[in-house]
Amino acid sequence: MEIFVNGQALQVPDGSSVAQAVKLFAPTVEPGRGAAVALGDQVVASSRWSQTAVNAGDHLELLTAVAGG
């Protein structure tokens, strides 16, 4: 099925979770490690990524922290 991550189309298997979608889109990002996800207009706690399902047409926004000055 097709979802959108940061505005880009991404094919994920039916029944995928937020965690699985993030892993496909950004393989180095781990829950609770400087990243946040919004599904639609709701922030998904990193502890819930693996339990939160995505559906065809969903829009995820993935934000990652960047260190530096």
Automatic annotation (TrEMBL):
One Pfam family it belongs to: ThiS
CDD domains referenced in this protein's UniProt entry, alphabetically: Ubl_ThiS
InterPro entries per the UniProt record, alphabetical: Beta-grasp_dom_sf, Mopterin_synth/thiamin_S_b, Thi_S, ThiS/MoaD-like
NCBIfam families: thiS (TIGR01683)
Protein name: Sulfur carrier protein ThiS
